[in-house]
Design a protein that fits this description.
The complex is a heterodimer of chains A (about 150) and B (about 450). By secondary structure, chain A is an alpha+beta fold. Chain A has 4 helices and 5 strands, in the order αβαββββαα. Chain A is globular, with a radius of gyration of 15 Å. The model of chain A has no long low-confidence stretch (mean pLDDT about 90). By secondary structure, chain B is of the alpha+beta class. A 16-stranded antiparallel β-barrel of chain B has the order 1-2-3-4-5-6-7-8-9-12-13-14-15-16-17-18. Chain B has a two-stranded antiparallel ribbon with strand order 10-11. In chain B, about 35% of the residues are buried.
Chain lengths: ~150, ~450
């Protein structure tokens, strides 16, 4: 799935606005702290509309990368997670049903494989990769909304 | 009149002077404003700079999300996935590479349960070093393999093996055909045997003696999944009954090494995943094992059938796994005769066992523990490789074992694990030998 296709499925009614945000070192530190995930991204691109925000994240699963779209609602919860590309063997690919458990989750301690996120039989690393990406995106969203005067 | 003109000129001259001063002032102030405006409004250069930053950010974004021309657009459903999730496969997948390994330190008690001095020396083994390689030709055809080195050095008793090597042909969205050196789809460990997938330093003894993990044979079959149900069914070369022992069928595995295929076996598996992280299922292996060998002029059939039931559940740091397995073997008298086995060295006619293991990642109680995990665990297992033997032979009570394992594992990152445990082994002969182990495992 291309990014354009993913965006079209995420925002069927209105074309979202592409926003580029350049994090200050303080914002990056805050996002890392709040997510509990280590990353170095300073340039954050997101697609915003009245119905929500789309973020894209590319990360390594086992030895090969995957790209996911995380849709965030205006109140800062996950709307849904969509996998755009997945280079590991297909048996490690998370199923649609497994991805659905992220819907409606917010950034808290329960968004963890050790809490409410159920594991993926035989594909622990795939499950962890998506859980971590979700935490990262929600923390970035929080930081950016704070900079915009939001909560 | 003259006076009026003089007065007018005088007034004009004065006005002009004042006016000239005002114009200069206005001119100066206007210029200042213009300069200020010029500072406020972007020059062409600034506008161009902004445009370039936009272009660069778009380029960086597409690099980061890998929106390059190698990304494929699939529009059919695969593996029971919705159309959206099934669009993920890239056309040109190419080579995949991975691996795992484990090191094992075993420290044996000085004497066994009967008080006899133990002759087994403590050991430290580079148990397994494994490389996975695969190649995806396209969305429908892929190759996968595992090359394994065991015990460090082939000149000193180690082995180099192709653990599995198969080609998958995806026939439809849910069903594929697989052929090559296949992992027998039995039990919990045989197909998923990386050290991070089971709790203890050593694999379960039941999944060593009753299901002879890691068990692989040459063959072909089908596999697939439909929603929460997944299944596999293969026809493979059967194993060699002329190599079974009182300890089980393990020696009969042919491992794809010029495998005899006078007898063919069927093997299969069915798993049901009611919700994510919880699986229950069963599997079987059935076939003759005589491989054309004859006793007193008649060919030995030696039918072997193994069944297992298994379950696994993981949730909120807790892991529970359980397995029950049983094997029955026909024509044991003839199979014993092939090797000259007598007395209590007979192969078992019926063998079986079960185990339950559980662990709890205590770091799940601490929300800020990160990816590391600290998991105490327990396992209890019972097995007997000679539940019954044919008339004229005797059971060896040492074949009936109970093993209790208690230990702790630590994962600094999810792909590495350090395990330490104590194993209390008992057998009906009273000659069980306890040991403690340290295992180090990794996957990548």
């Amino acid at each position: 799935m291309t990014q354009q296709q993913a965006l079209a499925s995420a925002f069927p009614n209105a074309k979202p606005t592409r926003q580029v945000h350049y994090l200050t070192p303080e914002q990056l530190t805050a996002a890392k702290k709040e997510s509990g995930i280590k990353f170095t991204d300073r340039m954050i691109v997101r697609y915003a509309s009245a119905t929500g925000f789309a973020y894209f994240d590319t990360h390594r699963v086992r030895t090969l990368p995957e790209t996911v779209m995380v849709l965030v609602t205006p109140d800062g919860r996950i709307d849904r997670v969509e996998i755009l590309s997945f280079d590991e063997p297909p048996e490690y690919l998370p199923k649609e049903r497994w991805l659905e458990q992220f819907d409606g989750r917010k950034l808290d301690d329960d968004l963890s494989m050790k809490r409410k996120i159920r594991p993926l039989s035989g594909a622990t690393l795939s499950a962890r990769a998506i859980t971590n990406a979700s935490r990262k995106v929600l923390a970035l969203h929080r930081v950016l909304q704070r900079a915009n005067g939001g909560k | 009149m003259l006076k009026r003109i003089t007065v007018t000129l005088l007034a004009l001259a004065m006005t002009t002077s004042v006016f000239a001063q005002d114009v200069a002032d206005i001119d100066r102030r206007l210029r200042a404003i213009e300069e200020a405006i010029a500072k406020l409004q972007p020059s062409n250069e600034v506008a161009e700079l902004r445009r370039q930053i936009e272009v660069l950010s778009a380029e960086i974004e597409s690099l980061k999300t890998r929106q390059t021309d190698t990304t494929a657009v699939a529009d059919t459903e695969q593996f029971g996935l919705g159309a959206a999730a099934s669009k993920v496969y890239r056309v040109d997948h190419g080579i995949s590479f991975g691996g795992y390994g484990e090191m094992l330190y075993e420290n044996f008690a000085g004497s066994n349960d009967a008080g006899a001095r133990n002759a087994t020396k403590d050991r430290f083994d580079m148990l397994r070093g494994v490389l996975y390689t695969g190649y995806k030709y396209n969305d429908r055809v892929l190759f996968n393999s595992e090359i394994e080195f065991e015990h460090g050095n082939t000149a000193l008793g180690g082995e180099a093996s192709v653990e599995f090597a198969y080609l998958d042909f995806l026939a439809t969205k849910n069903v594929g055909v697989r052929t090559g050196l296949l992992l027998i789809p039995m039990g919990l460990v045989n197909e998923q045997h990386e050290p991070t997938t089971y709790l203890t330093a050593r694999r379960s003894t039941v999944e060593n003696a009753i299901i002879p993990t890691t068990w692989r044979e040459m063959g072909a079959g089908v596999f697939g999944e439909h929603g929460p149900v997944s299944w596999r069914a293969y026809a493979v070369n059967s194993i060699r009954g002329d190599r079974f022992t009182a300890g089980g069928v393990r020696g009969g595995r042919q491992k794809g090494a010029n495998a005899q295929i006078e007898d063919i076996a069927l093997t299969g598996r069915l798993d049901y995943e009611p919700f994510d992280g919880t699986t229950i299922g069963g599997s079987f292996f059935s076939g003759n094992t005589g491989q054309g060998n004859a006793v007193n002029g008649s060919v030995v059939e030696g039918n072997l059938t193994i069944f297992d039931l298994h379950g696994e559940a993981q949730f909120r740091g807790a892991t529970v796994r359980a397995l029950w397995a049983q094997a029955t073997l026909d024509d044991v008298t003839e199979l014993n005769a092939l090797q000259g086995l007598t007395g209590n060295r007979s192969i078992g006619e019926e063998l079986g066992g079960w185990y339950v293991e559980a662990g709890y990642d205590v770091s799940s109680l601490l929300p800020r523990f990160g990816e590391s995990a600290l998991t105490p665990y327990l396992r209890y297992e019972q097995l007997d490789t000679q539940r019954s033997v044919p008339l004229g032979f005797t059971r060896n009570p040492a074949s009936e074992q109970t093993i209790f394992t208690i230990g702790l594992q630590f994962r600094p990152v999810p792909q590495t694990v350090i395990k330490a445990d104590y194993q209390n082994s008992d057998n009906e002969a009273g000659t069980g030998l306890d040991q403690w182990n340290i295992g180090v495992g990794y996957i990548f």
